[in-house]
Amino acid sequence: xxxxxxxxxxxxxxxxxxxxxxxxxxxxxxxxxxxxxxxxxxxxxxxxxxxxxxxxxxxxxxxxxxxxxxxxxxxxxxxxxxxxxxxxxxxxxxxxxxxxxxxxxxxxxxxxxxxxxxxxxxxxxxxxxxxxxxxxxxxxxxxxxxxxxxxxxxxxxxxxxxxxxxxxxxxxxxxxxxxxxxxxxxxxxxxxxxxxxxxx
Length: 200
Fold this sequence. Notes:
single chain; alpha/beta
């Protein structure tokens, strides 16, 4: 099929951008033309940032948050409560909860949720690493997975593993609409959900 533009390079960029989540064909084309119109210094900077993200960003060896320095800022912050761990699906969820500014514990990023249909089981998530953290002094684990089928199943699975260890397990309150991703919820709703968490 003949390229809709006269430039194969521009068409390749459009096609690549359209494969990104939430970016349709028209949005990808707008982005491609925007990049084309950028001053060379700006486009070089954008290209370098993409390379830097791939080479410099890594997982914190303690909580699996994305970070430039290991351990991450949250894990080394002496003002945070290391005895309270909030379990989230992805680093995006951690960022969303931090915007609420009400939580002063630490985090654990699972890297996804249990999804047998997609072939994602317990060994594909950072569940073993979470259990290893229980060897330290932990008072409470807050399960803050999304309130959808996979998020609920993941929370139930983790709770069953944690209960025999004698640690208090809570679930964030249902202030979040069912099916909502944490990263799209407003900060006040997230703060209230954390405040109103219940034992799980």
